[in-house]
Design goal:
By secondary structure, the chain is mainly α. The protein has 18 helices and no strands. About 80% of the residues lie in helices and about 0% in strands. The two termini are about 30 Å apart. Pfam families: MFS_1.
Length: about 450
């Protein structure tokens, strides 16, 4: 496979643009939620499904993509993913109802669920080891910076045009991605390996759907039914993964405890990225009474800083190893997050900007390097399964984070006679919950690096 002439940087760029657009649109819609609530007459709990259904579909598609990558050429998969995305954009550009809007998000989720693992597959299989940190930094730029840029982009479009414009202006971006990919990615024959484990895929769908419905239905006895569905899905997936010779995903990679540590650290960072992209724009609009443009603008400086740091942090990893950038990044992320949490009780827009910038500097140094370090611990034969776990759980954790913070805020709003006060309390409780996860991961990484100070 590697002897074929692939234009590596352009191939990563083409898949990266598509992945970037996919992740960007996750949070670009968050600033539109107050508008959508009013336009479609829906609740906070319902509106978050605009993001949740999208992330749910990605979570199901990514493990399916592990099978696709083993049986179909990267060129074919790239073209299919691109066309699905374009179809989803056109659907949502037109969408006259909430149901049609969700249908378009579903199509976009199918595309991003193929594009993300495809991008990392190209990086892991075609990049020399000594350049892998830098290229992984470029790749994870799409998943670390896009969530931060999304609210800014969505806010500008919504305030000046319409939320439909969010989809309109991404159409030429996808066409450019398609043109670059058609040039850079050759038709590379694939030696088909294994059949599709459809039962495992059903298990994944039940697991993720059930757990997300459980989180959205907290406070109602219906949540117990959803939890039961999720647990059934977990049992089905686990049985298949441990009994089949060619399972959908080999979970034996999870026996590597250090790999699991960096995977968890990466997922917590994703929790934070999606959590703050939901909480802060909505807080600024609902509590402070600002419009979507201002809400998005507050996120812009941090997004710009993160965009600059993503590839640089990968180069730092290649030069200095993983310990310094990861611990430095997690420490700054913690400081920034504490500042954001405190400011919810005494809100100052410039304070939110400063806290978000500090936090994004920390994310810039830690996020992609956690994934790179974790993947480097696996033998080459396990790259596909490790890549699938990172990307599947990344998207699912984003959906979970969005569902959790939306549920906390929604319950707080319903239990408080003052809607604004309930929003403030719910927002702060959401950030405190996520702060606890960040601190746990930070301490675990400190302990690990003290035991193994020479790990690269």
């Amino acid at each position: 496979m590697k002897e074929k002439n692939i234009h590596l940087l352009l191939a990563v760029l083409a898949t990266g643009i598509m992945s970037f657009a996919g992740v960007l649109i996750e949070t670009a819609m968050n600033v539109t939620f107050p508008t959508l609530i009013e336009q479609f007459n829906i609740s906070t709990g319902m509106v978050q499904w605009v993001t949740t259904i999208y992330l749910l579909v990605i979570s199901i598609m990514v493990p399916f993509s592990n099978y696709l990558l083993k049986n179909y050429s990267i060129r074919k998969l790239f073209i299919i993913a691109n066309l699905f995305f374009i179809a989803g954009l056109v659907t949502d550009l037109w969408s006259p109802s909430y149901a049609v809007l969700l249908a378009g998000r579903l199509l976009q989720g199918v595309s991003t669920g193929i594009a993300l693992p495809l991008m990392f597959h190209i990086i892991l299989n075609f990049t020399p080891m000594h350049k892998r940190g830098t290229m992984m930094g470029v790749g994870t730029l799409t998943t670390s910076i896009a969530p931060a840029i999304g609210p800014t982009y969505g806010g500008i479009m919504t305030a000046n045009l319409s939320w439909h414009a969010i989809f309109l202006f991404l159409l030429p971006v996808l066409i450019i991605s398609l043109a670059i990919g058609l040039y850079a990615i050759p038709e590379i024959p694939v030696q088909k390996s294994g059949s599709l484990d459809g039962i495992s895929l059903i298990g994944v769908a039940l697991l993720f759907s059930g757990l997300l419905m459980f989180l959205n239905q907290l406070g109602s006895w219906f949540c117990l039914i959803s939890l039961a569905v999720g647990l059934v899905g977990l049992v089905i997936f686990y049985r298949q993964a441990t009994r089949r010779d060619n399972p959908l995903v080999r979970i034996t990679v999870l026996k590597n405890k250090v790999f699991v540590l960096f995977l968890c650290g990466f997922l917590v960072c994703q929790f934070l990225l999606l959590g703050i992209s939901f909480v802060l724009p909505n807080f600024i609009q609902i509590v402070l009474g600002k419009d979507a443009f201002i809400a998005g603008l507050v996120m812009m400086p941090g997004a710009a800083v993160g965009a600059i740091l993503a590839p640089i942090s990968g180069r730092v990893l290649d030069t200095l190893g993983s310990k310094k950038p990861i611990l430095f990044g997690l420490s700054l992320a913690t400081i920034g997050w504490i500042l954001l949490t405190v400011l919810l009780r005494m809100p100052v827009l410039l304070g939110f900007v400063a806290g978000h910038v500090i936090y994004m500097i920390g994310i810039g140094f830690s996020y992609s390097n956690l994934m790179t370090t974790g993947m480097s611990l696996l033998p080459e034969k396990d790259y596909g399964d490790g890549n699938t776990l990172f990307n599947t759980l990344q998207q699912f954790s984003g959906a979970v984070a969005t569902a959790i913070v939306a549920t906390i805020i929604n319950l707080s709003q319903q239990s408080n006679a003052d809607f604004i006060a309930g929003t403030v309390t719910g927002s702060q409780l959401s950030l405190l919950f996520l702060l606890a996860l960040l601190v746990i991961v930070f301490i675990a990484c400190i302990i690990h690096f003290k035991k193994e100070p020479t790990v690269n």
